[in-house]
Write a structure and sequence with these properties.
The structure holds two protein chains of two kinds. Chain A is about 35% helix and about 10% strand. Chain A is of the alpha/beta class. Chain A has a five-stranded parallel beta sheet with strand order 1-2-3-7-6, sandwiched between helices. In chain A, strands 4-5 form a two-stranded antiparallel ribbon. Chain A is globular. Chain A starts with about 80 loop residues before the first helix and ends with a helix. By secondary structure, chain B is α/β, with parallel strands linked by helices. In chain B, about 60% of the residues are buried. Classes of the chains: A alpha/beta, B alpha/beta. Chains A and B meet through helix 5 and helix 6 of A and helix 4, helix 5 and helix 6 of B. The complex binds thiamine diphosphate (TPP). Thiamine diphosphate binds next to strand 4 of chain A.
Chain lengths: ~400, ~375
């Protein structure tokens, strides 16, 4: 038998991020296209002809807050202000709920700090008839659509008015009327479901489309890849977002396979078009989503969008990011803060001012506080809750004898 | 060829299509009323044809389930008759198949998906137990998954480990799933139709050993064709059987046998072999379970034998045994006996040692008959 000898012994590579606690943040490895530099292919382009877009970065807002290049969606000032206000409100809501956790009013919370532009812009573009299959970081979708904050809080507090009867972790909302599919705690499961939903719309000859979100970390789940296969094979009218916020709890995006290639490029092997977008640029997110929407609505199938962003806050209230990444990494994120950038843009347009911004922030805080009062009057976690009887409801469309017997055993 | 036996030459992954012989092909143009003799494949196929003709929201897909009609031909001619978008081939992605069905169900469709063998349901397990089963509950009724997951299951076909398993208890344990297992053509059609119409996710296991005919468990006996069975007289039109209602296959006074799927026929043979006047109850549905029929029968006979193919430990027999003990303890004249598969992976070469046969059923019957006070 032949002996196979290497010049050197084999060695195992485990990817490591560019910085750990104590290190200076280093983003020098990022290749960021200049704003306006990436062309806008026709919506009907073949995935083959636009392979580059899976590796470039679509940006619209430049450093001075001016919208440049072919992806400028040319939004009117009213829409821009509406988006900005929804982002401000989302951040204010996050801050209050995070504090509520610290005060022992709820068991858990997850912020989307730094990622507000994504859910807000996309929630504004698509209609409520279209179905969103979100993760726990798209609260901006409900907020942008005017879902009552008090209902969100009631869910977070699992109180007597919790619209989903105390059955889910805080933040795992569900609202059919607002195009918000019930969130699963199992990562990735919603993506192939979104594809199925979109297939159903196409099967019925309807005009609704689906949109899903998944984190960079969860793209390693099989569900994600199954979804791409189905979306491609059946040309489902769906927008498949990957929110690359650099971190999956303590694992950097390289652990999910983001070191050798981009997440957007995963679409290429499935024959799907991919766009890689600055997720902190409200206008770029808007424009890319519109591109994908048009493609889906004109029966040309799915688009994969990687939204390149940074998770500014801890993963959740149970997480301390200073233990695995440089403490000030978020502040050094080269693509800035989505709220600050849209603010700058509106000011550059002469459609906004620092005073208006401060007012909007104060208004958002007041709005959140008012909703908080209302919700806390109903009760925070453990102070009030839905009737225990409801625990046995909706397991099936109709209760069977086991559930009736077990409910009686509990005495309700 | 009217009878189907399984021989050495069948022991390959390629056995499946051959299981259907020419004269078992689905009826071509079924009349809209009246009955017709059907095997279980034809009955299931008829259920799908009838439902799809009636309701445009019903569609069917799975691996090889479109053009070819499935390796067992249960979905035969659906595509040709109802169109490409109603019945189609799916990628080899059980997780994707079930997940897509869930999304479709949430949209308002009634997808019926085929998992080619129950042994391949595990890649879809998370979507079934964490998603389909829980949507209604976790969304307080806002979203539901009225899907049917069909899958041939069970042993006795020399399928080796990966074409023989009986994973029903993995699903009966999950809140929010219904589990249905027919044992004959008539029930198969009525129950599948009901499953499709059910507003909850239904796991529908088809005992593939019974596709072509009843099987008494004596391995030297061939599968007898359905032809001579009343239960093979299947209405060609639409009918449903209630999910959650057991069928008393044989009335008796000595002992109650609880069984389902292939084991219904094995149990009937075992009772005859033992010469015991057994009441044989085909559960038909494991969730929801027809506890009334079980309770009434065991209280009448005072004895209970449970028969299933799945391994013994944590099998559904454990649940049945506990229920009978809880409800009928003072009526029992002997300990409850279980006849089950062994706690080993399904062994190819030892199929007939593994597969619960009528001798083991007869032994259990005799032991409960003499184990009394
Ligand atoms: C199937 C599954 N495995 C593990 C977890 C635990 N978990 C929750 S969030 C998370 C990290 C997800 O990271 P990513 O997908 O990048 O999304 P992000 O939180 O950054 O938005 C993990 C591992 C889970 N919820 N589900």
């Amino acid at each position: 038998m032949t002996q196979h000898k290497n010049a050197q012994p084999l060695s195992l590579r485990v990817p490591e991020p560019s910085g750990r606690p104590g290190d200076t943040p280093d983003f020098s490895h990022l290749k960021l296209d200049a704003p306006g530099a990436v062309d806008r292919p026709p919506v009907g382009s073949t995935p083959y002809d636009m392979r580059d877009h899976a590796f470039r970065l679509i940006r619209v807002l430049d450093d001075a807050g001016v919208a440049v290049g072919p992806w400028n969606p040319r939004l009117d000032a009213e829409t821009l202000r509406k988006g900005l206000k929804a982002m401000i409100l989302t951040r204010a809501f996050d801050d209050r709920m995070h504090r509520a956790h610290r005060q022992g009013k709820t068991s858990f919370y997850m912020k989307c700090t730094g990622e507000e532009a994504i859910a807000v812009a996309q929630g504004m573009i698509l209609s409520r008839e279209d179905m969103g299959f979100p993760t726990y970081r798209q609260q901006g979708l409900l907020i942008a659509r005017g879902y009552p904050l008090v209902d969100m809080m009631n869910q977070i507090y699992s109180n007597a008015e919790d619209p989903i009867k105390g059955r889910q972790l805080p933040i795992m909302y569900s609202s059919r009327d607002y195009g918000f599919f019930t969130i699963s705690g199992n990562l990735g499961t919603q993506v192939p479901q979104a594809v199925g939903w979109a297939m159903a719309s196409a099967y019925k000859g309807d005009d609704k489309i689906a949109i899903s979100w998944i984190g960079d970390g969860a793209t390693a789940e099989g569900d994600f890849h199954n979804a791409l296969t189905f979306a491609s094979v059946y040309r489902a009218p769906v927008i498949l977002n990957i929110v690359n916020n650099q971190w999956a709890i303590s694992s950097f995006q390289g652990i999910a396979g983001g070191l050798e290639t981009t997440f957007a490029s995963k679409a290429i092997g499935y024959g799907l078009p991919a766009l890689r977008v600055d997720g902190n640029d409200f206008l770029a997110v808007w424009a890319a989503t519109q591109w994908a929407e048009e493609r889906a609505r004109s029966n040309q199938g799915a688009t994969v969008i990687e939204l390149f962003t940074y998770r500014g806050a801890p993963h959740s209230t149970s997480d301390d990011p200073s233990r695995y990444r440089p403490g000030d990494e978020h502040e050094k994120w080269p693509l800035g803060d989505p709220i600050a950038r849209l603010k700058q843009h509106l000011i550059a347009l002469g459609e906004w001012s620092d005073e208006q911004h401060s007012e909007a922030e104060a208004e958002a805080v007041a709005q959140v506080r008012a909703a908080g009062k209302e919700s806390e009057a109903i009760g925070t976690l453990g102070q009030s809750r839905p009737s225990v009887k409801t625990m046995f409801e909706e397991v099936f469309a109709t209760e069977d004898w086991r559930l009736i017997e077990q409910r009686r055993e509990v005495g309700v | 060829m009217t009878e189907q036996t399984f021989t050495e030459s069948d022991r390959t992954d390629g056995i499946e299509p051959d299981m259907v012989t020419a004269d078992h092909a689905p009826p071509s143009e079924a009349p809209t009323s009246g009955t017709q003799p059907m095997n279980m494949i034809q009955a299931l196929n008829s259920a799908l044809h009838v439902k799809m003709a009636e309701d445009p929201n019903v569609l069917s897909f799975g691996e090889d389930a479109g053009f070819f009609g499935g390796v067992f031909r249960v979905t035969d001619q659906l595509q040709q008759k109802h169109g490409l978008t109603r019945s189609f081939d799916a990628p080899i992605s059980e997780c994707g198949i079930v997940a897509a069905a869930i999304g479709m169900g949430a949209y308002g469709l009634r997808p019926v998906v085929e998992i080619q063998f129950a042994d391949y349901i595990y890649p879809a397990y998370d979507q079934i137990v964490s998603e389909a089963a829980k949507l209604r509950y976790r969304s307080a009724g806002m979203f539901t998954a009225p899907i049917t997951v069909r899958s041939p299951y069970g042993g006795g076909i020399f399928g080796g480990q990966t074409h023989s398993q009986s994973p029903e208890s993995l699903f009966t344990h999950i809140a929010g799933l219904k589990v249905v297992i027919p044992s004959n053509p008539y029930d198969a059609k009525g129950l599948l139709t009901a499953a499709i119409e059910d507003d909850d996710p239904v796991i529908f296991f088809e005992p593939k050993r019974l596709y072509n005919g009843p099987f008494d468990g004596w391995h030297k006996n061939p599968v007898s064709p359905w032809k001579t069975q009343d239960l093979a007289q299947v209405p060609t039109g639409k009918y449903t059987l209630p999910i959650g209602k057991a069928r008393i296959m044989r009335e008796g006074s000595d002992v109650t046998i609880l069984c389902y799927g292939t084991m219904v026929w094995v149990s009937l043979a075992g009772a005859e072999h033992a010469g015991v006047d057994a009441e044989v109850i085909d559960l038909r549905t494991l969730v929801p379970l027809d506890i009334e029929t079980i309770e009434a029968s065991v209280k009448k006979t005072g004895r209970c034998v449970i028969v299933h193919e799945a391994p013994k430990t944590s099998g559904f027999g454990g649940e049945l045994s506990a229920l009978v003990q809880e409800r009928c303890f003072y009526h029992l004249e002997a300990p409850i006996a279980r006849v089950t598969g062994w706690d080993t992976p399904y062994p190819h070469a030892f199929e007939w040692e593994y597969f619960p046969g009528p001798e083991r059923v007869a032994e259990a019957l005799k032991s409960v008959m003499t184990g009394g006070r």
